[in-house]
Amino acid sequence: MSQNPDLTIRRANPEDAGLLSELGAHTFSETFAADNSPEDMSAYLAASFNLAQQKVELNDPASIFFIAEVGGLAAGYAQLHVGESAEGVEDSKSVELVRLYVLREWLGRSVGAALMRACVDGARRAGHETIWLGVWERNGRAQAFYRKWNFRAVGDHVFHLGSDPQRDILMERVL
Predict the structure, then answer these.
(1) Which residues form the N-acetyltransferase domain (predicted)?
(2) What is the pTM of this model?
(3) CA geometry: angle at 122 spanning 119 and 125, to 5°?
(4) Which residues contact 6 (CB under 8 A, 6 or more apart)?
(5) Average pLDDT over residues 106-119
(6) Virtual CA dihedral for 41, 42, 44, 50, nearest 10 degrees?
(7) Less Cβ around it within 10 Å: N or C end of the chain?
């Protein structure tokens, strides 16, 4: 059970664009800024977490967002997206776990697990048979978390962080 009795997970709505913009940029920076150039980080954050982009993603019927709140304050979020599967992902009824981001202060305190549970349950309810994701080859903490949730490596692909092509490990989990 949750270590945080005040932890709740809710579906995001279009009014959450500003929150997701701030939360996404903050959590991404916390996790990756130390290992990447300021120029590449700035370029990626500006393209991926601007308010207009978040509005587009929230209004996309192929995407579902879950927000984790502790005591009414956002602690993290996750995004599922139905689209073309990456090479190496076998199932045609798959869904991508695009993001699962948790504020540093909430790491190891059940927030990520609650978000993953919501993603797995949501994917099953929607009739998906597989969840897949890409995780940076240098993010060992995230890889260990995904392995704990029965994800397995099935390949790799390139993720562009600004001008820096990086290797992501593709992982999938059968539901």
Answers:
(1) 7-175
(2) 0.94
(3) 150
(4) 70, 71, 72
(5) 96
(6) 140
(7) N
Q: How many CB atoms lie within 10 A of CB 150?
A: 13
pLDDT band of residue 90 (cuts 50, 70, 90) is: confident
Count other C-beta atoms under 10 Å from residue 57's C-beta.
Answer: 22
Q: 64 φ, ψ to 5°?
A: -130, 135
Amino acid, single-letter form, for residue 113: A
Q: Tell me the three state secondary structure of residue 95.
A: strand
Alpha-carbon torsion 109, 166, 20, 104, what sign? positive
Place of tokens 């370029």: 43
CB 163 within 8 A of CB 47: no
CA dist list (Å): 172 to 87, 93, 110, 131, 157: 11, 12, 21, 6, 13
**In the numeric block, which tokens belong to residue 69?**
């709140």
